[in-house]
């Protein structure tokens, strides 16, 4: 058993990670257990019908790796009449957004498959033990946390009210978002199948068949063939050198990690001036300039690229030249005393609003996240990976220290992660101080309606993300210590588990 530091979105998820760590689990086991609990109790944000990414820093200091379990475009064997079961909803959530929901918005999930692959490679306790805390939470019920409640206050009728089981689960009898205990029928049994059969249950097994059959019956594209063909992809993480740290973040075809890498390279040591724990005005101005450059390039080029890998590498190469010459989601981070680090980010989009019959699983609407589908709702060929803002990131210091970090927050993911890493590595802030620091986000960068959003230090809000970070650091005497930092913008929770 190794010491483990964990940062998670809520207390129950943190408890799950700690429970698994005490049973002999490492950072990977603890992070996956916590993330599975969020798929139960972070209603509206994530579910078992999620996509996600896991970035791992192996404890031996070898190169970091990302396991891609993000969404595929469905439609294998579907006829042209399918995919019509959709409609648009406009909500003020997240500053105002229009999303597409219904059965036709459901993409091919992959997060649990990625978890299983990650566990197979780096886990140290049995898979069943990793899933067990989520089974217990589903069986015993849970109360909605602040992030779920905040989101559902906007969309509980429009998105989560049209499906009978969904409406019953999240509403009190008076039609308001429930403040009671949420117990979703069939969900605990579904998790027990996943504990027994692994991700196969959600793809080629009973759960996958129930999900596909219900989606197709309601006008969606997700076929049994889509779920059976799905495979997580293991890739070298996108590496970023930052002083004495080597970071590994989410590579293409996701786009969030590319933005994080470009921002950190362009910041080039910023913040230079940190006084009383705050970035200087000059440094914040540079941060805005960097965000405008990177996010503007994303909107102009990367979001519409026919060869994202080539275009992203070319952009990062140009960023390197510039440096030398002059982002609805949940995240869990864990680090252990052996130097291993694990960052997990998962999402089910804004939610399709439907619970697949007989499973208790809320289904995603990732085809209906319009900002991530510039080619249109069903514009990609079946089996193609969708775009993603996610940027789970790990880092290894030349002295043996290790870091895991990430955030939810749609297009604010990359700006949140880059700012916290820059404040910690470049600015010398403590990990918690870097997480707590007010943030800046350039919305619609380079467009006529661009808005530079500057967070009020007296009113930190979840709009700017919900960073979870853990650290294994070496002190002046050479001793190693674990730290964990949760974001005050959400109901984050941390745990430090020490070996006997």
Automatic annotation (TrEMBL):
<keyword id="KW-0808">Transferase</keyword>
<dbReference type="InterPro" id="IPR051792">
    <property type="entry name" value="GGT_bact"/>
</dbReference>
<dbReference type="InterPro" id="IPR029055">
    <property type="entry name" value="Ntn_hydrolases_N"/>
</dbReference>
<dbReference type="Pfam" id="PF01019">
    <property type="entry name" value="G_glu_transpept"/>
</dbReference>
<comment type="similarity">
    <text>Belongs to the gamma-glutamyltransferase family.</text>
</comment>
<dbReference type="GO" id="GO:0016787">
    <property type="term" value="F:hydrolase activity"/>
</dbReference>
<keyword id="KW-0378">Hydrolase</keyword>
<keyword id="KW-0865">Zymogen</keyword>
<protein>
    <submittedName>
        <fullName>Gamma-glutamyltransferase</fullName>
    </submittedName>
</protein>
<dbReference type="GO" id="GO:0016740">
    <property type="term" value="F:transferase activity"/>
</dbReference>
<dbReference type="InterPro" id="IPR043137">
    <property type="entry name" value="GGT_ssub_C"/>
</dbReference>
